[in-house]
Specification:
There is one protein chain. The protein contains 10 helices and 10 strands. With 279 residues, the chain is of the alpha/beta class. The protein is globular.
C-alpha cells in the first residue's frame, strides 16, 4: 500500500523497534525504505542484513535530503514519512486506508496520531508514558491499554507520520533542502502543498503511533526554521498553522459551511496585517 520512508541517524535500537512494529502491526504489505545517515553504529550492516530497501550517506545529511533520496525509490502510489523513533500500533495503517477510501482526490496530507511520554501541550497528541528509550519501552502495557487511547480526527496535519500521494510529493518537489537539517521543513512542505491547491490536512485519530520524542533532532545543530519560513512565505509559521491549517481543530469545531470566498478574504486580511507589522 505505502512506500514508508524512514531517515535514521545512528538510532539502531529504535530503528529496529520501528521496523518490527511495521512488520508486526500492519494489515497491509508496505515497501520500507530507510535512509541511513552515517550508520557507524551498525545501522547500515543491519539494514543490509534485513534486505530492506535503503539509501545511505557517509555523514548525516539531515532530514530533507534523506527523505528526498529515499523517496526516489518509492514504488507505491502513496509515500508515508515515518521517523525512526516511532512505534506503529496495531491498526495504524488500516485507519489511514479507511480514510483514503472517502477522499475523492489525490491532493491531501494525512497524519497518524502520536502518543508521547511527555506533555508538550500539543492538542493533536495523546499523552501516555510507556518509556523514552527502546530499552525502557513498555510495549506490553501500551498494547494492553491501547483501546483506551482514542482521539477525534483533527485538522492541521504536518508532522510524521504523514501520508501523501507519490504523484504530489514529486510535483511540489519533496522537502526543501534550504531547511536542512530539518527544522520547519514539515511546515514548508505543507505550505507547498497548500499553494498547489491542497486543503485536506487531516489527522486520523485512530491511526496511533508511539513517539519517543526527538531522538535525532535533539543531537543536531538546528537551523532557524521559523525565521526561514517567515522570509520564504511572508508569514509566521504559527499564523499558517492556526489560520490556514486550523491546527488541532476537530471536524465538529470547523465551520465547514463557511463559504470558501469568505475564508479566502479572511486570510488575505491576515496576510495584509502581517505585512504591515513587518514593514
Amino acid at each position: 500500500m505505502f512506500s514508508i520512508i524512514i531517515p535514521s541517524w545512528n538510532n539502531l535500537a529504535l530503528l529496529q523497534l520501528c521496523i518490527r512494529s511495521i512488520r508486526q502491526n500492519s494489515a497491509f504489505a508496505h515497501q520500507i525504505i530507510v535512509h541511513v545517515n552515517d550508520g557507524s553504529d551498525g545501522t547500515l550492516a543491519w539494514v543490509r542484513k534485513q534486505e530492506l530497501h535503503y539509501t545511505s550517506s557517509t555523514e548525516n545529511i539531515g532530514i530533507c535530503l534523506a527523505v528526498n533520496e529515499a523517496a526516489m525509490h518509492a514504488s507505491m502510489d502513496y509515500i508515508l514519512y515515518l521517523n525512526d523513533d516511532m512505534y506503529c500500533c496495531p491498526g495504524w495503517d488500516t485507519a489511514l486506508v479507511n480514510k483514503l477510501k472517502v477522499i475523492d482526490t489525490d491532493l491531501f496530507m494525512l497524519s497518524g496520531t502520536m502518543i508521547e511520554p511527555k506533555n508538550t501541550n500539543n492538542p493533536c497528541v495523546i499523552v501516555g508514558d510507556y518509556g523514552t528509550e527502546a530499552e525502557s519501552f513498555d510495549e506490553a502495557r501500551l498494547l494492553a491499554e491501547l483501546p483506551k487511547h482514542h482521539k477525534s480526527d483533527w485538522w492541521g496535519a504536518t508532522w510524521p507520520p504523514t501520508l501523501v500521494s507519490r504523484n504530489w510529493w514529486f510535483k511540489v518537489g519533496g522537502y526543501s533542502s534550504e531547511f536542512s537539517p530539518g527544522m520547519s521543513s514539515d511546515n514548508d512542505f505543507s505550505m507547498k502543498l497548500w499553494h498547489a491547491g491542497c486543503r485536506i490536512f487531516y489527522g486520523v485519530g485512530d491511526s496511533l503511533v508511539y513517539h519517543f520524542q526527538c531522538k535525532s533532532t535533539g543531537k543536531v545543530k538546528k537551523n532557524d526554521g521559523g525565521k526561514q519560513f517567515l522570509h520564504k512565505w511572508g508569514m509566521r509559521q504559527s499564523v499558517f498553522d492556526r489560520y490556514y491549517l486550523r491546527r488541532g481543530k476537530t471536524a465538529e469545531q470547523m465551520r465547514l459551511d463557511e463559504p470558501e470566498d469568505t475564508r479566502e478574504l479572511r486570510w488575505q486580511l491576515l496576510r495584509s496585517k502581517l505585512k504591515r507589522a513587518l514593514s
